């Protein structure tokens, strides 16, 4: 039986202690703890890495504080368009959706694309039709509504600005994305990512969360990675797969590979954000180049932590 | 002044001499020659790799024989939804669009996303709105119409089958995509890809042609790659960027890296298709694991060839 591990994130960016109230910090910590417990419980019972990342990501989607599923940000037309993806490191199977509305758990839809279609990426109305066919749970607009997100959007509505998460100040960036990477006791790994994208986003903008290789990647030979950050830069840097290549082709460890990608490759193109990852031996790492990243990790070797700031 | 090179493709798959008439073969060859000339003329005058791949891809989109732009296949609702992407190896800037209708040259829209927006990937109606804002040329349905593609679709309409290009026989696969990779005399490289996707496709399916890292990638340090094939497998294998990583991290040549990805990595997951690529020294390669690939190459060192079969 190998060591098993789960690591999760709830977004990265300019997350500063001085901007946080004790109540809000406790709420974020609780949201992360619930997601960690949801996934880790499965791993502990002998469940698969794939089921664990789905459970953890689903829990983060359900938490109104994080920009994914319930509590997603508003696009410029007032709708909530969500992206998600999942990849199984054992089979290299992957599924992803982009710009879907009313789907309660976009990561479940990504999983259904992976398992019930011959495709990897479905978008928009077509993805919603596919969801209906497979009885994926939908919710009315009210379910996704968060007064906080709505206020953010109202401040930006009618402008050409788009913000990557909570903030209207562009200098104060938060990249609202959630995700998880896990290694199970059988030595299989998986990763999943989900997001509501940018506040006031327009033109059908899609970030890295539904791009396999950029926001999500998993391969038992190397690593499982879920990213959060300035999506455009993560797409251009093919971020998640780059970590895998550095491990496979240069023999680097998970931590070394993630540090090169996050501190060097991404920084060179002003790519702010971070990632969580595991390898098939149960090692985990959480690396970011922003002020903070909502994150947590728990492993069978007794490491358990939840952190927000540097 | 460095050697300069252009290489193009018009799709790969079960392309057999016995299925071809002399007239059709001559028409395909003429289409490829025109695209090669359109791009190479620019390189010869000192133009950029980026301009050359755009010109070559635009020419292939305009040719009714290839499944991209004019002559795109029909989706299951009778519409023509197109995907395209472009990447500049000098700046690592990239642009892509998915599921756009009525855009005369989707590759030009991908270029406009790269240069006129802060985004990399725009999809559907949003991408079309962005196109209108930037006065990107549109055409009515009749422009894209090809009697041959329409007949294909009518044969499949109402079924749940989707074909990757011309054929209703699933055993006889053609992957209709066009693309180009170029190295200019300044040692800069670029790649572009465009497609109409699968005949009778549904559910908003998107393949690798609009996924940076999968269907298209360019980096002056390594290579510029444009792919054609079974898009789902190319996304899962992060095909184009894998060639780049094998060159950067293992020191392989362009030809060696492309052969590993196409013959080994892709074959292991039944990923049929191929790719064209260049490096920044003006070397070019065209590698495929299917029966044929419409392809061409021309370089300042006097190599010029157009081929269809193995």
List keywords for this structure.
homodimer; alpha+beta; globular; 310 residues; Glutamine Phosphoribosylpyrophosphate, subunit 1, domain 1; four-stranded antiparallel sheet
The share of residues in helices of chain A is 25-40%
Q: With helices defined by DSSP (H or I, 4 residues minimum), what is the helix count of chain A? A: 9
Structural class estimated from helices and strands of chain A: alpha+beta
Arithmetic mean of pLDDT of chain A? 93
User: What's the total number of strands of chain A?
Assistant: 14
Give the N-terminus to C-terminus distance of chain A in angstroms. Answer: 33 Å
Binned strand content of chain A? 25-35%
Query: What do we call the CATH topology of chain A?
Result: Glutamine Phosphoribosylpyrophosphate, subunit 1, domain 1
Largest interface: A-B, 43 and 43 residues
For the record, the CATH class of chain A is Alpha Beta
Largest sheet features of chain A:
9 strands, mixed
CATH superfamily of chain A: (Glycosyl)asparaginase
Stretches of chain A where pLDDT falls below 50 for ≥5 residues? 166-172
Structure, briefly:
Two copies of one chain form a homodimer. The first copy, chain A, is built from nine helices and 14 strands.
Describe this entry's structure for a reader.
- 2 copies of one chain form a homodimer.
- Helix content of chain A is 34%, strand content 26%.
- Chain A is an alpha+beta fold and 310 residues long.
- Chain A has a single domain, classed as Glutamine Phosphoribosylpyrophosphate, subunit 1, domain 1 (4-Layer Sandwich).
- In chain A, helix 2 runs antiparallel to helix 3 and helix 8 packs across helix 9.
- The model of chain A is unreliable at 166-172 (pLDDT under 50).
- At the A-B interface, strand 3, strand 4, helix 4, strand 8 and helix 7 of A face strand 3, strand 4, helix 4, strand 8 and helix 7 of B.
- Strand 4 of chain A pairs antiparallel with strand 8 of chain B, so a sheet runs across the interface.
